[in-house]
Design goal:
2 copies of one chain form a homodimer. The first copy, chain A, folds into 2 domains: about 1-175, NAD(P)-binding Rossmann-like Domain (Rossmann fold); about 180-285, 6-phosphogluconate dehydrogenase C-terminal like domain (6-phosphogluconate dehydrogenase C-terminal fold). In chain A, about 55% of the residues lie in helices and about 15% in strands. Chain A has helices at about 10-25, 35-45, 55-60, 75-80, 100-110, 155-165, 175-200, 205-210, 215-220, 230-240, 240-265, 265-285, and strands at about 1-10, 25-35, 50, 65-70, 90-95, 115-120, 120, 145, 170-175. A 6-stranded parallel sheet of chain A has the order 3-2-1-4-5-6, with helices on both faces. Chain A has a 3-stranded mixed sheet with strand order 7-8-9, with helices on one face. The longest helix of chain A has 27 residues, at about 175-200. The model of chain A has no long low-confidence stretch (mean pLDDT about 95).
């Protein structure tokens, strides 16, 4: 149970976490802080948070748990502002999609207090953003990855783990570097492919006809191109090396696939598609649905 | 109304068409022909077709309409077999995902009878295959593209158009070349991207962790990698030039995106993602759903 929770950034993720913890009876008071007054007011009206503070110091003064639910590119600045006003007992965590850069920023900003910072990343979301899209069951059965460092206080780690479990999530730990390399392939790369496909179509001579002929395959493949451009720019910049490496691998593989098509190498194509399909089919079980 | 309909290949598409036309009361008797006896028996048991013939000549003898619902790579052979046994009044159409190669095969095989061949492509399907997956509403509100040639008999074109409209589809016409270039971008390219992503993950050192961390974005982006490998090999070989061209464009675009990430060019990334998202958002209206 968290007596006083402060969420910095009441968007899809921050708002959904507040809703989930309320529904679970796991939180006393929820304070919100953010840049957009309109968004904070909406969060109060929707009953997602109890109160708003317009100064960061006031927002975190009595907080037991502080969640940074901001685009990765904003983390450094907010951590700098947070350091001098943080209560001794407060645990701080974040929800950023990239971990090594956030860990570095937190270590630099928080210094000795870094032991109370638990880097985290819930593998959940939709292509929507904003508190209006938040939902209490967003994290149910979803994975949350925590990337504790050697300095991380075990009690702080336990507190953050318990919070996510109360929200319905399954918690796992990884090193920050492993997280960033794995997520580059499982999440960041698919987003780049969707944006790149959508942008190819926008600039194609036949773009109207292509959109008219878009069926469910195109729709599903490009759904995540509806994601927030600022958030994804930040992820690209923060996970630059791992993402560029897997993009180069993807491009090499696509070159081999294109060459097989140009050569008419049906055997290679059939073998590759069969291997890919086999592994994709095993994922359906994981998601508990057809396709 | 079609008195006698023969469907060659009772899979997802052929089976769904039979179901749709029955539900609409638009068909008298449906005869099935195919390679797999087990599949044909299942189609009879499911009530998808009325009867089975084991010789192609018997299957098409009295047919008013013959639908070739086979992988593109099988079209040439079946058209050659069909030519000598086709009744004078029969209209023939196909559902192939590539049109120029089917048109060429039909023209060569059917000769004067080519006027009664109407090339077609319903833009519908799922990543599943087989008659068990067929459904009467598969084509409802979906687009069907017909690609008539200069020789095509207008009455045959009208008959095929009316059949698809009875199945609930919206019919449009394009030239075969336009169809193949547009579908290379709207359908064939997304399938290649999904197969290529799935195959990268299969061969990745972290493949288990990547699959464990796969969230809804990864799931949706790779759904169509569950498609039938034989069908997609055939499409690649049949639409080789148009598909290779758009793959090369995609790869060039991905090179620019990767370079922007490596240079840390946040402005370029934000602009590109914003443009892509804007167009993707307009698609949600078309599909009548969120995302």
């Amino acid at each position: 149970m968290i007596e006083k929770l402060t969420i910095i950034g009441i968007g899809l993720i921050g708002g959904s976490l507040a809703r989930a913890l309320r529904d679970a009876g796991y939180v006393g008071e929820v304070t919100g802080y953010g840049r957009s007054v309109g968004n904070l007011q909406q969060a109060v009206e929707l009953g997602v948070i109890d109160r708003v503070e317009v100064s960061l110091a006031d927002a975190v003064r009595n907080a037991d748990m502080i969640v940074l639910a901001l685009p990765v590119g904003c983390m450094g600045e907010i951590l700098e502002q947070l350091a001098p006003v943080l209560a001794d007992h407060a645990v701080v965590t974040d929800v950023g999609s990239v971990k090594a850069s956030v860990v570095a920023a937190a270590r630099a900003a928080l210094k000795a207090r870094f032991a109370h910072f638990v880097p985290g990343h819930p593998l959940a979301g939709t292509e929507q953003s904003g508190v209006a899209a938040s939902q209490a069951d967003l994290f149910r059965q979803r994975r949350v990855i925590l990337t504790p460092e050697s300095e991380t206080d075990p009690a702080a780690l336990d507190a953050v783990r318990a919070m996510w479990e109360a929200a319905g999530a399954q918690v796992a730990t990884l090193s920050a570097a492993d997280h960033d390399r794995i997520l580059a392939a499982s999440s960041h790369l698919p987003h780049m492919l969707a944006y790149n496909l959508m942008d190819l179509v926008v600039r194609h001579d036949d773009h109207r006809a292509i959109l008219e002929c878009a069926a469910t395959g195109f729709r599903d493949t490009t759904r995540i191109a509806g994601g927030d451009p600022v958030m994804w720019r930040d992820i690209c910049l923060a996970n630059r090396d791992a993402l560029a490496a897997v993009l180069r691998q993807y491009k090499d593989d696509l070159e081999a696939l294109t060459a097989a098509i140009e050569k008419g190498d049906g055997e290679w194509l059939l073998e590759t598609f069969t291997r890919a399909k086999h592994t994709r089919d095993t994922l359906n079980k994981k998601f508990g649905i057809q396709g």
